[in-house]
Amino acid sequence: MRDFVAKNVADLPPSGIRKFFDVVATMSGVVSLGVGEPDFKTPERVRQAAIDLLEEGRTRYTANLGMPALRERIAHYLERRFHTVYNPLDQIMCTIGASEAIDVALRTILEPGDEVLVIEPCYVSYKPSILLQHGVPVVVTTKVENDFKLMPAELERAITPKTKAIILPYPNNPTGAIMEKEDLEKIAPIIVKHDLLVISDEIYAELTYGGKDHVSVASIEGMYERTIVLNGFSKSFAMTGWRLGYAAGPKDLIKQMNKIHAYVVMSAPVMSQQAAIEALRDDALCDEDIRMMREAYDERRKYLIGEFNRLGLTCFEPKGAFYVFPSIQKTGFGSEEFCEKLLFEGGVAVVPGNAFGDCGEGFIRISYAYSMEELKTCIQKIEGFLVKK
Question: What is the pTM of this model?
Fold first, then answer.
């Protein structure tokens, strides 16, 4: 019998994160700082909105783009928080998490052989999503000495006549890096000069620290008409399991993206959409829910930065998301070797930095979407492991 699996699928490597945590799942007594999932409950009023809808039996399909009331709330939220104006009728599409939005955006724009710039270290699904559309991911490496920001010269060097788009991953998973307004203003002219599309993954937009508010690249001069903004409710609203994201961008692109979305999934779950309407219904309540979580994350962020630097695992200061990315180079171990030894000898699970690209070698990713008690326990275990090694 012939092999029925498409070559581009068979050639996909397994997720470096999933591969590692498949091992963790077989062990007992392990404390994990590996999963990027808020430890907060979805706000009670948001959960209740979905419960009410279920009890009323309102469980039918919605419009492909999403419930009009939700798209109106998203448009209001994006204008209020990030100063970008979108028409809810034809510039916003609700998706099955931001992950579907990434996939659909790439399906919409890529022809075989088109190149997409991938800024590493980065979220693990970008390159596979490009390869599944027969595109070519081109890695642009960022460096710790530049706070893992995309430098204009590095961007310029990576562009070829085949380059069609760039995925901009800020605030960044795994590094916690952000791009401030002045940083975006330096790369915008290069993007315009080469006529590139920007797919801007802004899922961590509300989680920035040190008085640094997130700036959307779509708000930078010349970027609005060539940017698809991806966002959702998973991280900022503690709604990972609800699987609800959205894309906002030029109406012609959203129209084409919606064709794929309609054929493949029809619409995002109505229960999740109703919950999201409630999450955004009242500006003051929305901001308070986010503020409470952000302040807790900030306390944890400061604690981990201080502790890793104390332990000699140098850690630059992340200004966004909920990850720290300390260097483990002084230990003499590679990223995977360090994580395996820490797991089996120290009982702590963290993610090797090279799971997010080759330039992540020599680092580990640690999520602080865990309680302070758990973080303190893990630091004690890591310190004990470093003393023994």
Answer: 0.95
